[in-house]
Amino acid sequence: MKSVEISLITAFLGGALGFLIAYAALSPGAPRLLRPAFLTFSGVAANFGGVPLAFAFISTLGTVGLATRALDSMGLNPYDHGFTLFGFWGLVVTYLYFQIPLMIIIIAPAIDGLKAEWREAASNLGATSTQYWRYVGVPVLLPSILGSMVLLFGGSFAAYATAYALTSGHIPLVPLKIGELIGGNVLSDPHQAYALAFGMVIVIAVAMAIYFVLERRASRWRRTVQ
Amino acid sequence: MTRSGWFWIAVGVIYFFVPLAATAEFSLKDGDSYSFAAYREIFDDPAFRDTFFLSLKLAVATIVVALLLFIPTVYWVHLRLPQFRPLVQFLCALPFVVPPIVLIVGLLYVYNYQWVPAKYLGSPYYLVPGYVVLGFPFMFFALDNAFRAIDVHTLTEASQSLGAGWIRTLWRVILPNVLTGALAGAFLTFALVMGEFTMASLALFNTFPTYINYIGQTKANPAAALTIISFGITWLALLGILLVGRRPGRAAVQVGGAR
After folding, report:
1. Does some domain include residue B99?
2. Which residue of B has its CA nearest to A209?
3. Number of domains present in the structure of chain B
4. Phi and psi torsions of B30, nearest 5°
5. In a domain, B22, yes or no
6. Do residues B193 and B62 make contact, with C-beta atoms less than 8 angstroms apart?
7. Which of B252, B97, B190 is nearest to A105 (CA)?
8. Tens digit of pLDDT for each residue in B188-223?
9. CB pair distance less than 8 Å for A60 and B213
């Protein structure tokens, strides 16, 4: 089963990219207009999922998709280099479409909590930008970033419709397997489906326990700030 | 702003818009030229109308049930049982983390019991309780935000000292004050039901999302057109929230959707 693998990868990539984009668009130095625009578009993209998302990516990166044709005309057809939208990495790219905006929404409060004074204090004490991030920014934000990544993990672990429409079951994912077991005509075995479903609940419970630990660490800074 | 900042913003913008542009292009493609043929084909398809209106009806039913359930619950929690708020909050956040596929497995199991009337099992409204549960987080957090912004105790006392009963207090005093939250929750629930595929497909009902999937496996260009339509629905719901949520301090919960 590739569920855990794909969820870990998309949570990490989505978390990292989402944080970088969110920091660029929401930090105090960014133009004011970017903030509402990014939060609104993120809200739409995070809510846009399921079957239509799969079709959007087929139109983009499918064998005759717009991006595929554009890359092909540059001599970089991804399908010549082992990429296929209907495989593992195709699913990763598609999931990132809702993972990145989800990250932007979840991490926004933490970025808002990053006080401009801290940065000023650091540079007054002679810290370089790297030192600021090494000793102030990252330690403060890390629990929030990791906690958000845990939530992203849950989001992609639960995803069913997108994978169903995109890969038609070629990639072994737990939700697709459960779907086969309770809906399938040939493979029907509800008891195995119950067992797998319970397994998913356990994985999610572990993820949530990690989340609560991280959240407690993250809120330590919020309390001192307020 | 730094150059790397602009780079990441560009990455975000490209990632957001390229798939949409590609889908739009694909939906308008008609052989070698462009036309609205794919959209016409969709709108002329009676199955589109049937499934679309079925999903609309389910969305309305889900919203009504969820509001009837949550407005009194959240009101009572805020008024009399504040110590239970963390518990209710936890319960309502659960559907956000428990995968829908697990919920439908549980729901199918419950529906196996004898006491569920057979007539109900054949009706698509079968899905409504599941959708209400899926919508728990949106409804609860939207309403909870709204209730936190008003003074429940004073409003209730004022209303009762003027002689209003509980129903009248809820309907005439509390509801207008939390309307923003109720509408935000309703819009999110609407977007959720209009996109929910997992439950509908496993329970074998033909709703709008399962229709999209069916078209996707048979016709490519109309599927792209449907994707654009579906994206438009998500936009409308989110715009609705933005419009009703203009008042300060009303940051509605915007995360969710059907995956």
Report:
1. yes
2. B97
3. 1
4. -140, 90
5. no
6. yes
7. B252
8. 888 888 888 888 888 888 888 888 888 888 887 888
9. no
